[in-house]
Specification:
7-stranded parallel sheet, 235 residues, 14% strand, alpha/beta, Rossmann fold, binds NADP nicotinamide-adenine-dinucleotide phosphate, 45% helix
């Protein structure tokens, strides 16, 4: 099972929890971190790649094919998150980076590894895209992030048709699960005030949603929000 962006936070948590469930996990990272050392110490294999351009992504796919004969699931968690820059040339660089990370890398990995994806006990294999509640109700200041994540959501829908019946393709759409330093205290307060369950959810509910998709053989083309209900009241 491949988990991308596993060198910190949610991806790290997913890699650890899925290994605890008995899966053989291959954890992708861009930047080496203490968490990668923790994964290695747990016996989890890791693989480095920067999804910054098509050559790097294609070489990553070739490396995966050489290294593994079969995958039970692909979990696309790697993501770039930032407010859209006012300066147009900086915004152009952001578009390039967010597009390759949120759309081109998942697409090339999914297409490249499709023949190696095999389910268990006669059930389909899984592809899971970690998206965002922004794909339904976008935040204007984060429009490049949001539109490229919406592309990842749409790709989930089309690949659910294209890869059936042997592979299920679904999304998990987090809301406020782990704040970053890009969220000021005021923004955090506003987000929580818009969240019916009124707290930062943490990484475990994201894992639980992933787990429920892996366990259910008859869901495809679906998105599970993990947002404490924020999508209902987000401005
Ligand atoms: N945290 C939340 O509350 C929240 C809310 C909504 C949606 N989500 C979604 O949930 C997922 C995990 O969130 P998170 O907060 O744990 O994310 P995060 O802390 O921003 O981590 C993102 C991961 O993606 C990797 N990455 C970024 N650009 C990359 C590139 N060009 N090539 C390869 N790897 C790259 C990062 O590597 P580096 O360490 O090298 O940068 C990091 O491992 C993301 O898909 C995010 O969009 C999270």
């Amino acid at each position: 099972m491949l988990v991308t962006g596993a060198n910190r936070r949610i991806g790290f948590h997913l890699a650890k929890r899925l290994q605890q469930d008995g899966y053989t996990v291959l954890a992708h990272y861009r930047t080496p971190t203490d968490e990668i050392q923790v994964l290695n110490d747990l016996g989890i294999e890791t693989i480095q790649a920067d999804f910054s351009d098509s050559d790097a992504i294609l070489s990553f796919v070739s490396g995966l094919k050489e290294r593994c004969q079969s995958f039970r699931a692909l979990i696309h968690n790697a993501s770039s998150f930032d407010k859209t820059a006012d300066d147009l040339s900086v915004a152009a660089q952001q578009y390039q980076q967010f597009f390759t990370t949120h759309m081109m890398a998942p697409y090339l990995i999914n297409k490249g590894l499709q023949p190696l994806l095999h389910g268990e006990n006669g059930n389909p294999a899984d592809i899971i895209h970690i998206t965002d509640i922004n794909v339904e109700n976008p935040t204007p200041d984060f429009d490049i992030y949001g539109t490229t994540k919406a592309g990842l959501h749409n790709m989930m829908l089309v690949l659910a048709k294209k890869f059936a019946p042997t592979i299920k393709v679904n999304a998990v759409a987090p809301g406020p699960v782990l704040f970053t330093d890009k969220h000021s205290i005021d923004v955090q307060k506003q987000m929580l005030s818009e969240t019916p369950l009124a707290k930062e959810g943490g990484a475990e509910p994201v894992y639980l949603a992933v787990r429920s998709l892996l366990d259910n053989p008859f869901i495809t083309g679906a998105s599970i929000p993990v947002d404490g209900g924020r999508r209902l009241s987000k401005r």
